[in-house]
Amino acid sequence: MAFLVITIVVLSSLTGPVIGQLSTNVQQRIMAACEFLISLYNPALQLVKTTPSSNVYYTASDNLLAKKAVVYCNTAIGQNITQSISTCCGAGNDYMHESFLGQQIPLPIHNGTVYRIANSSAGTLFHNISTTAAGGSYTVVWEVHNSTGILPDCTYGDVAAYTALEMKLEKNAIGVQHEMDCLNVMFDGYGVADEAYKDGSASEHGIYQTYKLALYLYALWKVSNTFDYRAEEDLLRMQGPDGGFHTGYDRAGTYAGTMENAETTSISILALNSTSTFRIFPRVAFPSWIVYVFIGLPVAGVAAVVIVLMLERRKPKLTQQ
Predict the structure, then answer these.
(1) 3-state secondary structure of 53
(2) 43 CB burial (10 A radius; 0-12, 13-18, 19+)
(3) b or e along 64-80 (b: 16 or more beta carbons within 10 Å of the residue's beta carbon)?
(4) 248-249 and 208-209 as β-strands: parallel, antiparallel, unpaired?
(5) Does residue 67 contact residue 81 with C-beta atoms inside 8 Å?
(6) For the whole model, what pTM was predicted?
(7) 181, 141 in Cβ contact below 8 A?
(8) Are 228 and 222 in contact (CB under 8 A)?
(9) Which end of the chain has fewer CB atoms surrounding its CB within 10 Å, N or C?
(10) Which helix (H) or strand (E) holds 228?
(11) In angstroms, how far is the first alpha carbon of the chain from the final one?
(12) HEC letters along 131-146
């Protein structure tokens, strides 16, 4: 009977308040981040701008990602962004971020080419929307990864993550393992320490990129069925009071003077939401099948106890006979 009591306690601890509290907290964080995206939304242009202080609107990657992320708190705005992108840039694909959204991309991933769609200061308007209607001067651009240069996958964490997700869509198990091996080598327990972190520009050197941590968390779960709670905690720590996610952080876990932007916030929303139902043990990284082991053991234990009790009840009858 003692085993039965322990089993019930363990089972209740797995399915009780711990999961509920963590899941509720993350969902609240997602909603706050979603509201931040809405604060970047320009109803005249029907696009979100890069940062709160910016007047630049990227159809991709910012709005390509934001149209998916913002639906968690406002479906209509997500539809408006989709419609706005389609009038200039089709689906707005950029041959890289689509793999994060479950669509196939061509490999290898190339450098980006920036196309200027509109520049109100130069007289080129977006859908003939004046600066007055837009609330000020604005620029609309579209970055597409179709240049001649190739981005090496095992040099940059984001490229490795996007490539791994594409390999997953292609059902290329060997390719997936290769990319995840590269990602796991780059991840140092604090963030993705890739070439940009080690030898990048002044704004990148020694600064972990928040969106790369979110991509690592997502790829780890989506590709390897493994979840890292510490990585999630580090990601959540980068969320500002207004809901936006800061673009970078240092080894001490501070924002390192970085700003919040649409791309990082959108990727964080999508990564956190994809794993929002899988939260049991804090600060542990383990494969998802272990959950079933922990659930199965108590069930098997209860069954064993029932069998023992039934056998014990049968003993007196056998003795009497």
Answers:
(1) coil
(2) exposed
(3) bbbbbbbbbbeeebbeb
(4) antiparallel
(5) yes
(6) 0.81
(7) no
(8) no
(9) C
(10) strand 226-228
(11) 28
(12) HHHHCCCCEEEEEECC
Domain ranges of the chain: 1-39+187-321, 43-94+110-149
Strand 113-119 relative to strand 139-144, pairing: antiparallel
Query: Quick one: which of 37, 57, 54 has its CA closest to 45?
Result: 57
In the structure encoding, which two tokens stand for residue 6, read together?
């322990």
CA distances from 111 to 153, 159, 161 (A): 12, 11, 16
CA distance 271 to 273: 6
Length of the chain, please?
321
Mean pLDDT score of the chain = 85
Instruction: Give the CA distances from residue 316 to residues 1, 120, 304, 305, 311, in Å, rounded to whole numbers and listed in that order.
Output: 20, 93, 20, 18, 10
pLDDT tens-digit map of 3-43: 443 343 343 344 333 444 457 889 999 999 999 999 999 99
Structure tokens at 156: 């940059």
DSSP secondary structure letter of residue 74: -
Q: What is the pLDDT of residue 144?
A: 98
CA distance linking residue 215 with residue 173, whole number of Å: 19
| Cα 173 to Cα 78, 114, 164, distances in angstroms | 34, 33, 9
Question: Cα-atom radius of gyration of the chain, to the nearest Å?
Answer: 24
What is residue 118's DSSP assignment?
A: E
pLDDT tens per residue, range 242-287: 999 999 999 999 998 999 999 999 999 999 998 765 544 433 444 4
Closest-CA residue to 225 (of 171, 270, 288)? 288
